[in-house]
Amino acid sequence: MTAYDYDLFVIGGGSGGVRSARVAAALGKKVAIAEEYRYGGTCVIRGCVPKKLFVYASQYHEHFEDAAGFGWTVGESTFDWKKLIAAKDAEITRLEGLYKKGLSGANAEILDTRAELVDRHTVRLVNTGKTVTAKTIVIATGGTPNLHGALPGHDLCITSNEAFHLEELPRSIVIVGGGYIAVEFASIFHGLGVETTLVYRGAEILSRFDHDLRRGLHEAMVAKGIKIQCHDMLKSVAKGEDGLVVETLNNGTMSADVVMLAIGRLPNTHGLGLEAAGVEMNAQGAIVVDDYSRTSVENIYALGDVTDRVQLTPVAIHEAMCFIETEYKNNPTKPDHDTIATAVFSQPEIGTVGLTEEEAGKRYSDVEVYRAQFRPMKATLSGRTEKMIMKLIVDAASRKVIGAHILGHDAGEMAQLLGITLKAGCTKDDFDRTMAVHPTAAEELVTMYAPSYRLKDGVRV
């Protein structure tokens, strides 16, 4: 029987990697985990967590404005970017410490180094050149921003990584992209007083989301003062006398202090030694895995964004727990990627779970659509004109709710609870017999008794 240095070696200290290492170590396995940057991964270090802190910061100017309608007199307010950065950095350091504490508490060995595969059981620790062996290897190196190497001047641009560490708050920014990262940062920078332009090559932002939410968010962002240029793309970025000069395909030239690329993320697989170990990748560089997250090499697994299945932190954690069940508990378990609730922390925010109206129309022959658009109670005294949109998508034959979509305040919080409801297979009748919580915006979800319209074979009737 071959002796290995470790039962499990994990490459990547993000959500999926840390969870798999910590739980395996707690089961008594000899485990090592290697991370070349900081523990916590994209989400904790330069993704979801610092982004949400920025979202909170960017909302206060509207809170101050709204307060007047409720009788408050708010004095002159100022914003200090450097204080926000310092507070954010302190919180990220605290969270990273908790991740490391969990690993060390489970007796996992923590290695601060890049790790690369030599063969199917051997890993090289780049900082020292030392090689170690492991019976099982997990690759959880996540993703990395697309740097758009074909764009002239791409080296003058930033990505979401650098947005969290800007030394000064820019006066103006051009953000390229139409996905959730682009619209979230557009809302953040605009909320902090930055002149913001969003450039997207598609017909509408958030192309994979329900059309009512996409359109509603677009209109709300424009009403706030964000400039959105769809059907457009950058031709070049160059240094100018005062900042950057941005040339677009359809809207001429503009100036900006900062250009941010938010055009998607790529699996972080370059230089990992996957070819040497025989690990198969697809054309985009993502690691190919089976239903149990096992790669083409039997003892090597891959979890999270590096597999480019569903790029969400809770999904990576779920895949890690399925790996533990499969590898160490004699209980082969497939990750469940169906009906995943998600949120976009734009302003207003989006919460969604299940099928969009368009998807439902293609999959079901008879679909009921329940739709409500209204001004939330808070806006009545504040004078804000922003509207909320709520939609339920129902399979008319079974009465099962197959999609739920919300645009407005706290939409993400509502989506989490709706995720349980849809996962459980609840029907529209279950919604109808649930008592409303009044006065709330969420009560609309259980008081839409008649469909707004139907889809017959995908056609609205």
Describe the structure.
Strand 22 (453-456) and strand 23 form a beta hairpin. It is built from 13 helices and 23 strands. Helix 1 runs parallel beside helix 4 (81-105). The protein has helices at 15-26, 41-46, 48-67, 81-105, 160-163, 180-191, 211-224, 274-277, 313-328, 357-363, 377-382, 411-423, 428-432, and strands spanning 6-11, 31-34, 109-111, 115-119, 122-125, 130-139, 143-145, 172-176, 195-199, 227-229, 234-240, 243-248, 253-256, 258-261, 265-267, 300-302, 342-344, 350-354, 366-374, 388-395, 401-407, 453-456, 459-460. The chain is globular, with a radius of gyration of 24 Å. The chain has 461 residues and is an alpha/beta fold. Strands 1, 2, 3, 4, 5, 6 and 16 form a 7-stranded mixed β-sheet that branches.
